[in-house]
Specification:
The chain is 52% helix and 0% strand. It starts with 13 loop residues before the first helix and ends with a helix. The longest helix has 17 residues, at 146-162. It has 229 residues and is mainly α. 32% of the residues are buried. It has one domain (14-36, 71-228). The protein is built from 13 helices and no strands.
């Protein structure tokens, strides 16, 4: 199947990943993607990307958001602030597991960030991250900002391992000043991901995981719910 090969990063240590994030946060286009309204359409992408044959092949396989797709409720605008107060509130939601109030639950968005995009069908050996790894929006994130996604995946995986999955310890670790750029990168990726969703993405994901079964998944109607479920 046609696919854009995500950038292969040569990284020797945790600090190289942190450097990747620091450099990426200076890229104006990433913040512009996060602050934009509506779907992040092809028109907003750099010419070198959107005019490439590899990108056209990628779109044929995974699709790309378009204003004609249908209506998806956007993410709340107040989430687009990246100051320390917003970071504290975001961390609380990012690590929440409140199933009764999805508006305060970003727990599953962690799974997006620690999953590797793939195109293989579900099997008995598949893990929960394999479910998220098949989501077309995750593939789009890796095409659009590969160095950020790769760095966050490695850093967050290490943090979760060191903290043995404890939400309190993960929150304490991410809440340190030395990790403020990691939190800012997560916030930006969350906003960009909300703009990279297509109404039929859950069926596209289902088709990758279960290619021989009928496509029964519903439309995506709310960006936050799609990123937190």
């Amino acid at each position: 199947m046609s696919h854009i090969h995500h950038n292969n990063l040569t990284v020797d240590s945790e600090y190289d990943y942190r450097d990747r994030i620091s450099e990426a946060l200076w890229k104006e286009e990433y913040v512009e993607y996060a602050y934009g309204d509506g779907p992040l359409t092809v028109d907003e992408l750099p010419a070198a990307l959107k005019n490439s044959d590899a990108f056209h092949q990628f779109v044929e396989q995974f699709g790309w958001p378009d204003i004609q797709d249908g209506s998806i409720e956007p993410l709340p605008f107040q989430d687009r602030e990246f100051d320390s107060r917003a970071a504290d509130e975001f961390l609380e939601r990012f690590l929440s597991r409140n199933s009764l109030d999805p508006s305060t639950n970003l727990n599953n968005f962690r799974m997006w960030l620690t999953s590797t995009p793939h195109e293989h069908s579900h099997s008995d050996d598949s893990s929960i991250t394999d479910i998220y790894g098949a989501h077309p929006a995750l593939h789009r994130l890796y095409v659009l900002m590969p160095e950020v996604m790769e760095a966050l995946r490695m850093l967050l995986t290490d943090i979760e391992s060191e903290c043995e999955g404890s939400r309190r310890r993960i929150a304490d670790t991410l809440g340190r000043g030395s990790n403020s750029e990691i939190v800012k990168a997560i916030m930006i990726v969350y906003e960009v991901a909300g703009r990279l969703l297509k109404v039929d993405d859950m069926r596209r994901q289902q088709q990758i995981l279960f290619p021989d079964k009928p496509l029964t998944m519903p439309d995506i109607t709310d960006a936050h719910v799609a990123l937190s479920q």
